[in-house]
Write a structure and sequence with these properties.
Layout: H1 2-29, H2 36-39, E1 41-43, E2 49-51, H3 52-58, E3 61-66, H4 71-85, E4 90-95, H5 100-109, E5 116-119, H6 123-128, E6 135-140, E7 143-149, H7 154-164
Parallel strand pairs: 3-4, 4-5
Antiparallel strand pairs: 1-2, 3-6, 6-7
Length: 166
C-alpha cells in the first residue's frame, strides 16, 4: 500500500511539472499578435475561398497547423477530423506537405475530412509564427484567443473552443 501511495504522489508531481512545462512552452511560442496574412482570403484544396476573419465573426474557429510528415500530427489529425465532422468550425493549414493532389490523396487514404489550405512552401505558417507542429489557434472575431502546440486531446480542443465562446 505504501508503494502505491508513493507512486501516486510521484505521478501527480510529474503531471504538475509537465503541465507547467507545456504551459511555459506555449506562452513562449505564442505569437504576440495574429498575423494579418492568416485572416486574408485563402483557397482550400477543394477550390473554395475562405477568410478566417469572416468565419470567426460568426463564432470561434479552430486553425489547425499540421503536416503530413509530422508524427504527432498523425495522432491529432483523426481527432480534428472527428471534431470537424461533428460541426466544430475548423480550417487547417498543411505545412510543406507536397503538391495539392498528393495531399488530397493522403487525406483520403487516412479518411481525414477537415477543410485544408495547402501551405506548400511554409510561407503562411512562417508569417504567422508557427514554430512547431501541430499547432492549434482559436480565433474569435479576428483575434487570437487561445494557442497551444503539440499533442492535445479532443476534450482540450473542445474546452478551448467553449472558453472562446464567452
Amino acid at each position: 500500500m505504501n508503494k502505491i501511495k508513493k507512486w501516486s504522489k510521484e505521478i501527480i508531481v510529474l503531471a504538475i511539472i509537465l503541465f507547467i512545462a507545456f504551459t511555459v512552452m506555449d506562452l513562449w511560442r505564442k505569437p504576440q499578435t495574429l498575423a494579418p496574412v492568416l485572416l486574408e482570403q485563402h483557397t482550400l484544396v477543394n477550390g473554395e475561398s475562405v477568410s478566417l476573419a469572416e468565419l470567426s465573426k460568426e463564432k470561434p474557429i479552430l486553425a489547425y497547423f499540421w503536416a503530413t510528415w509530422c508524427g504527432v500530427c498523425n495522432l491529432t489529425s483523426p481527432t480534428v477530423s472527428e471534431l470537424s465532422q461533428s460541426g466544430m468550425p475548423i480550417i487547417s493549414i498543411a505545412i510543406r506537405s507536397g503538391e495539392t493532389s498528393r495531399l488530397i490523396k493522403g487525406m483520403e487514404n487516412k479518411e481525414l475530412t477537415f477543410p485544408v489550405i495547402n501551405d506548400t512552401s511554409g510561407q503562411l505558417s512562417n508569417a504567422v509564427g508557427v514554430s512547431a507542429t501541430p499547432t492549434f489557434m482559436v480565433i474569435d472575431n479576428g483575434e487570437l484567443v487561445s494557442f497551444t502546440s503539440g499533442w492535445t486531446s479532443s476534450y482540450g480542443l473542445k474546452m478551448r473552443m467553449w472558453l472562446a465562446s464567452f
